[in-house]
Amino acid sequence: MNCLLKAYEYEAQRGVPMSRDELVVTHLPLVKFIVDRIASSLPPHLDRDDLRSAAVIGLISAAERFDPSRGVQFKTFAEQRIRGTIMDELRAQDWLTRSLRDKFKKLEKEFSQLEQRLGRNPSSDEVATAMGLELKDYFRLLEEIHLLSFVSLDDAWHDEDGAPFGLLDVLEDKGTESPQSQLIARQTVERLAEAIDSLPEKERIVITLYYYEELNLKEIGAVLDLTESRISQLHSQAIVRLRGKMKRVA
Count of domains in the chain? Predict the structure, then answer.
C-alpha cells in the first residue's frame, strides 16, 4: 500500500491527474485522521465504524465532484465533504438530548442579548449573572454542552428564504454556482473571519488552533498552559458567541 501511495503522489507531483479511485486510495488516511479527531470529543458509545463509513462516502463524493481546473487542492475540498457527511451521520443518530439542546439555545440567547446591550463581548461573570448562575455552575454548563458545540457552528446560517445551510455549503467549491451564490458564499466567509477576529483573545486562539492548526484540546491546553477542561469551556463559549454573531449578520 505504501508503494502504491508513493507512486500516486509521484504522478500527482508530475502534474498527471489522478483518477477517482486513485484520489480515494491516497486520501484514506485523511478519513481516519478526521474521524479520530471528531470522535475524541464525542461520547464513547457512538460507533466509530458508522462515522468511518460516512466519512468514506464523503471522500468518494469529493473525488467524483472534484474539478482540478478550479485551483482548489483536493485535500481541502475533500476535508469539507468528509466533515459534512460525518455531521450528517451524527445528526441522523440524534445522540443529543432535548435538554442539552435547550440549554445550548438558552446560553446562545443570553450571549446574543448581552452583546447587543453592552456593545461588546460579555464576560463569563456577566453571562453567569444574567442566567442566575454561580460562576462555577456556569463553567459546569459550558462543559456539559461542549459536545454539542463541536457540531453547532455548521448550523449557524440561514439563506434569504430562512432555510438553513451549513459551513460545508459555504466552503464547498461548486462548479454550477451562479455568480450571486459565489458572492454570498464569499461574503459569509468574510463575516465568519470578522466574527472570529472579534472574539476575546483566548477564545480566538482556541478556535484558530483547533480548526486551522488542527490541534486537539489537550495539545491546545499545553500551548496555553491551561487544563483540557478549561480549553473545552473556552471552545464552547467561543462557538456560542460565533453562532450569535453569524445569525445577526445573516
Answer: 2
Q: Angle at CA 225, nearest 5°, toward 129 and 122?
A: 25
Q: Find all residues with CB under 8 Å of 34, minimum gap 6, and list them.
A: 55, 79, 82, 83, 86
pLDDT category at 165 given cuts 50, 70, 90 is very low
- pTM, whole model, 2 decimals? 0.68
Instruction: Give the phi and the psi of residue 134 in degrees, each rounded to 5.
Output: -70, 155
What's the rounded Cα separation, in Å, for the pair 29 and 46? 21
Q: Which of 93, 119, 147 is the last residue of a domain?
A: 93
For residue range 95-131, list pLDDT tens digits in order: 667 787 888 889 999 999 999 999 999 999 999 999 9
φ, ψ for residue 27 (rounded to 5)? -110, 15
Give, in order, the Cα–Cα distances in Å from 85 to each of 22, 24, 139, 157. 20, 15, 31, 18
